[in-house]
């Protein structure tokens, strides 16, 4: 079928994400599956990882291209990590272009470097660029390294460049939208809030497993990446206060997740003499995660109070709520917006008050039930992914509003158009066709 001399086909989207492999990046996977369901063709470039080692894979119609990654252990090695990732992302973008094609590069930060690839294809071939704003990198840099030096200013400049070339930006909350408008100078009509709502098909309520408690009466659960800014040290210090100062030996603390701080945190638990009361499960499967969280009597979010965490929405909070778990966390702007009455809020970075709030909930089963029921209802009625999916699709409709919609086609299926690139795409394909065979 043709229209105005051009063949009809679904729009093609290339998602690039560096910090997690798919399908384990839940936000990216929800977006990708929603777009496929709406009639788009979706390819994803991401790193390899535990449980996602295949370099080329198709899952649920989504074509996944994975590349090697080097994990940085110091500031200097971040340059190596990002350079290696950028090299593979650029190379695989060409491969996707030849094998499947794409109309849009949908870039998920961190880091704010993917604009280099998006800008290249936008300038050369007129491809569109979508910035999916997962993390505020200037605040993340400051949280990790505690200073605003030359590198901090470079990070701010990279963020500005990313916003500058974006056709639209997807913000995970209102705080991020404000940054896009104020620091990124974006047109308000091109910034869309699409929250990382949990998928209730994945987060199932199942019976608790008493073995998780290791013979103790109660279980406190945590899930998340174990990084420097996650504040797990506050949780361990709270556990020490409960176990050693208050002589409570009836609580098991279960921490699910991997990350660069895992071994240091294990050593800290030994130093605090609480290692027998803390289980580090490492990175776990979905089934194992559900086993742990459904057993927990209270779930916690110990993210440190800083500019990064105050403005960021933590997926773990909504996952706890989806499973009807009462929460203890520090009082952060977006954390309070998300959880509202599903959580108790400890004073900023106060591990003793954090411990007090945990014990307050453990001592009152009815209160735990009330908080859990409120959280579950809030997720189902307002925060779950089905409430966010239409916002994502609306953003893409605005992105393509200059194109010619075709009556009767599925959403996202419109007339073919390559934009106004400086070099015709078919010419680039002919000139670079030898590269296509070098896979």
TrEMBL record:
One of its GO terms (molecular function) is glycosyltransferase activity. Gene3D superfamilies: Glycogen Phosphorylase B. Keywords: Transferase. Residues 26-202 form the Glycosyltransferase subfamily 4-like N-terminal domain. InterPro entries: Glyco_trans_1, Glyco_trans_4-like_N, Glycosyltransferase_grp1. It comes from the Bacteria. Residues 215-377 form the Glycosyl transferase family domain. CDD domains: GT4_WbuB-like. The keyword Transferase applies. This is Glycosyl transferase group 1. It comes from Bradyrhizobium cosmicum.
């Amino acid at each position: 079928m043709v229209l105005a001399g051009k063949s009809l086909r679904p729009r093609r989207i290339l998602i690039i994400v560096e910090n997690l492999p798919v399908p384990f990046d839940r936000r990216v996977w929800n977006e990708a599956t929603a777009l496929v369901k709406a009639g788009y063709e979706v390819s994803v470039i991401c790193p390899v990882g535990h449980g996602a080692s295949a370099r080329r894979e198709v899952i649920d119609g989504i074509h996944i291209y994975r590349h090697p990654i080097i994990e940085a252990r110091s500031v200097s090695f971040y340059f190596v990590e990002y350079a290696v990732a950028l090299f593979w992302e650029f190379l695989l973008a060409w491969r996707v272009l030849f094998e499947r094609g794409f109309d849009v590069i949908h870039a998920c930060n961190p880091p704010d470097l993917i604009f280099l690839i998006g800008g290249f294809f936008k300038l050369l071939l007129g491809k569109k660029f979508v910035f999916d704003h997962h993390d505020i990198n200037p605040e993340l840099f400051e949280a990790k390294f505690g200073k605003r030096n030359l590198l901090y200013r470079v990070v701010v400049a990279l963020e500005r460049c990313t916003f500058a070339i974006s056709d639209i930006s997807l913000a995970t909350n209102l705080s991020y939208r404000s940054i896009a408008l104020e620091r990124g100078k974006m047109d308000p009509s091109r910034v869309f809030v699409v929250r990382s709502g949990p998928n209730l098909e994945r987060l199932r309520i199942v019976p608790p497993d008493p073995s998780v408690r290791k013979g103790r009466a109660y279980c406190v659960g945590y899930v998340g990446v174990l990084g420097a800014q996650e504040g797990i040290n506050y949780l361990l210090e709270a556990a020490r206060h409960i176990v050693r100062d208050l002589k409570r030996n009836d609580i098991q603390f279960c921490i699910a997740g991997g990350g660069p701080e895992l071994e240091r945190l294990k050593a800290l638990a030994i130093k605090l003499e609480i290692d027998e009361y803390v289980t580090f499960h490492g990175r776990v499967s979905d089934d194992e995660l559900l086993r742990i969280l459904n057993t927990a009597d209270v779930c916690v979010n110990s993210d440190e109070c800083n500019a990064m965490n105050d403005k960021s929405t933590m997926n773990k909070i909504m996952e706890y709520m989806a499973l009807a778990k009462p929460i203890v966390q520090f009082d952060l702007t977006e954390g309070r917006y998300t959880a509202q009455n599903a959580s108790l809020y400890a004073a900023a970075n106060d591990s003793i008050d954090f411990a007090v709030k945990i014990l307050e909930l453990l001592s009152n089963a009815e209160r735990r039930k009330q908080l859990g029921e409120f959280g579950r209802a809030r997720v189902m009625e307002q925060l779950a992914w089905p409430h966010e999916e239409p916002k994502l699709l609306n953003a893409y409709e605005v992105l393509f509003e200059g194109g010619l919609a075709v009556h009767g086609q599925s959403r996202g299926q419109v007339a073919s158009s390559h934009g106004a690139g400086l070099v015709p795409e078919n010419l680039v394909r002919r000139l670079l066709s030898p590269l296509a065979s070098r896979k």
